[in-house]
Predict the structure.
Amino acid sequence: MIEVSLNKQNTIIENYNNVQRRIKMAAESVSRNFSDITLIVVTKTHSFETIKPLLDIGHINFGENRVQEADSKWSPHLGQYPKIKLHLIGHLQSNKAKKASELFDFIHTIDSLKLLNELEKHINNPSTKCAQFFLEVNMANEEQKSGISIEEIINYRNHLKSNSKLLCDGLMCIPPYEEEPSPYFLLLNKMASKYGFSKLSMGMSADFEKAIQFGATHIRVGSEIFGQRQ
């Protein structure tokens, strides 16, 4: 077991509370309700012992990038913390769709019809836990990033309405790192309104306040809580 010092635990909780205050202030600045915004604490590469202080104060939404890491980290503890909601926020290979459906409550990264169809195969399995899904949109068509193009959203929406059993009611994005994120957040908000998506997964440690001001319902924050990775 990895020991986490009391000082480190206190710092994590202090950082978490500060992020919550910033969320509230950002929401109030655009007359939004704090309760309408879900803080997903990003726990990739962090040990369960590092995360435990947040569980002990009642936080339940956590984000992971990889199925295998999430399984080994969280599965032994889900019985002790039954209210935990796990969010997959990293790329999902279609051959891991079944396991992801059994482990995660939310999948934010549908980026192909192949993956969408594979998830559909498992939606009615008794072991499937995942009930809510997001389309990942590659806003700037960056080659190194996953996601569908803005132009493809309508085709996916039509497929979901006519053929799919999935509750896919959200859009997710990661703006280009070197650019001002606000125009991308605004555009994703417009696309969601245009095509009838009610949830927006956007905003990370560096820009979550701007994302909230442009309608984010789910924000993904790690380093502002746990500190920069060494």
Remarks:
- Residues 93 and 177 are 24 Å apart (CA to CA).
- Residues 6-226 form a domain with the TIM Barrel fold (CATH 3.20.20.10).
- The chain has nine helices and eight strands.
- The radius of gyration is 17 Å.
